[in-house]
# Entry
Amino acid sequence: GAVVSQHPSWVICKSGTSVKIECRSLDFQATTMFWYRQFPKQSLMLMATSNEGSKATYEQGVEKDKFLINHASLTLSTLTVTSAHPEDSSFYICSAEKGLNEQFFGPGTRLTVL
Amino acid sequence: SQQGEEDPQALSIQEGENATMNCSYKTSINNLQWYRQNSGRGLVHLILIRSNEREKHSGRLRVTLDTSKKSSSLLITASRAADTASYFCATDASGAQKLVFGQGTRLTINP
# Structure
């Protein structure tokens, strides 16, 4: 199998606080993981590519200092939304790459910033 | 950036009818994938079609790929209420590691 989990599944936080979201590949190792953001009734937008042991590659327009990505092991990548604001409220989805260009997606994390 | 465009954006049909969704893309691809997403949930992988394939079937799903037109279609036959979801195509561009998603089609199956 190829199962990817995310934690938490939903989080509510106050404006100005930081929130960490975890993405884990449960039964395989993933050198590469991806972080997406999805606003209501919209498609997934790739935020960054997370590579184990090296710096993440961010898509144009995504602030690397605001969305901190750490991929410290072959089964875990974390996304930290720093100093979150209401406009950061969104559905965050990760995926983990298994094999050649085959991605498996996590169930998503709903972030609500008050 | 999103290179995929899907049409229609929304589709509402009666249970038992067939549903067809289309996806267009702009660059050369290695493969094209279709995903389903129920409201507020993660993505479920439906089917992958490689650039050298023209048609693929999986149960009630039929996917076609026309690389000359840079387009793909997803056909769901004998639709069921449980098929109600958003459907996205995603392309794996040649030379690129990442997936680029289309805008999606919101499919509603009316009982």
